[in-house]
Amino acid sequence: MSAASLLDTDIQAARILVVDDERANLVLMERVLRTAGYTNLVLIQDSREVLERYRDEPTDLILLDIRMPHLNGFDILDQLSGLDDPLISPVLVLSAEYNREAVLRALHAGARDFIGKPFDRAEVLAKVRNMLEVRLAHRLSHNQRLLLEHLVAERTHQLRDTRLQVVHRLGRAAEYRDNETGAHILRMSHTSALLARQLGWEEADVECMLHASPMHDVGKIGIPDHILLKPGKLDAEEWAIMQTHTTIGGDILNGDDSDLLCMAREIALTHHEKWDGSGYPKGLAGEDIPPSGRIVAIADVFDALTSARPYKAPWPLEQALDYLRQGSGQHFEPRIVEVFFDLLPQILEIRARFTETDSPETPIQDD
Ligand SMILES: [Fe+2]
Ligand SMILES: [Fe+2]
Q1: Distance of CA 106 to the CA centre of its chain
Q2: SS3 of 58, please?
Q3: String of b and e for 337-355 (b: at least 16 CB within 10 Å)?
């Protein structure tokens, strides 16, 4: 089958609605079109049915009478343009009322072309064919665009997955350097996302928080063992070096403009800032601290306090909650502390869900 005949087949299979209140006109037009090889014809005598039939199946052309009872041709054109269909079918108006005013009115209302009645058979067939050729080409390019958009969405999704894989592994690399466990990372990231959602963040940003917050301590990769793993208290110099895990993290996560890594960098840099300005590395205060950093601060501290570490037993829940209450307005933003207490049941659920026996392999899932 040649390309040309394939195209002919497509054109002849195009769905054509013929709308006319006179039965005789419908029959005549049907005969003309069938003789020319068109097979997919829908004859409509009651113009009130047009919209419904149009919606039934993709339509490629509408042959439309103007003077009809109930809904006239202009009403139908209005209905069609109200559909907001990006692939709206072309309309060829056929009317006995063939004057300049009527033609212009129909064209302005969205008709593609106009033919006077009684019509010239050859003219009708030539116009029908022309309109269908354009129509099918348009439909083809529209479908190709949809296909391309679909492919782009798929690739974007793959890219996002790869990026997530990389950041999770980066977060895990930091865990190897530290006393913090995989379960801590899971709990603090889920808690951070929960707080962000309750604080009114958009869902995409909440998801970003979920995946970005596990990297808050990635900078610990750059802290020497004798400081990072020192069992006792750090002296002033060691403490100063320890604090650089924030800026080292910022450097590691620098240079990518994805939302995810931008937020991860922001969190790495600011999760030890305090609301009253007494934190590090910059001593930022209040709203100068990015919201992500303010949220992670509380989720991270709460989980650290209530977790066992080689050098400390977990704090009892009440004691940890007291710490948060007392830190409101000092270490933590008061509003986030409030939200934290509002969400306490869910936060305790997260705590019970990810226990230390969870392997660090447990992936961070979106809920
Ligand atoms: Fe940290
Ligand atoms: Fe942490």
Answers
A1: 40
A2: coil
A3: bebbeebeeebeebbeebe
Q: Residue 40's beta-bridge partner residues?
A: 15
Using a CB cutoff of 5 Å, list residues around ligand 2, an ion.
300
Tell how far the Cα of 186 is from the centroid of ligand 2, in angstroms: 10
What are the C-alpha distances in Å from 57 to residues 26, 50, 157, 278, 348?
A: 20, 12, 32, 67, 53
Q: Are 40 and 13 in contact (CB under 8 A)?
A: yes
Q: Are 154 and 266 in contact (CB under 8 A)?
A: no
Distance CA 243, CA 227 (A): 11
DSSP letters along 132-169, please?
Answer: HHHHHHHHHHHHHHHHHHHHHHHHHHHHHHHHHHHHHH
* Structural contact between residues 61 and 132, judged by C-beta atoms closer than 8 angstroms: yes
pLDDT in tens, 144-165: 999 999 999 999 888 888 877 8
- Average pLDDT over every residue of 26-44: 95
Question: What three-state secondary structure class fits 99?
Answer: coil
How many A from CA of 72 to the centre of ligand 1?
72
Identify the CATH homologous superfamily for domain 177-353.
Answer: Hypothetical protein af1432 (1.10.3210.10)
Residues with CB under 5 A from ligand 1 (ion): 217
Which CATH code fits 3-147? 3.40.50.2300
Q: What is the CA(355)–ligand 2 centre distance, in A?
A: 15
Q: What is the pLDDT of residues 346-367, one digit of tens each?
A: 999 999 998 866 444 444 444 3
User: What's the CA gap between 313 and 304, in Å, rounded?
Assistant: 11
**Structure tokens belonging to residue 268:** 């790495």
Q: Taking Cα atoms as reference points, which of 263, 286, 281, 279 lies closest to residue 333? A: 286
What are the extents of the domains in the chain? 3-147, 177-353
Q: 17: which 2 tokens?
A: 């609605």
How big is the CA angle at 273 (ends 269 and 275), to the nearest 5 degrees?
145
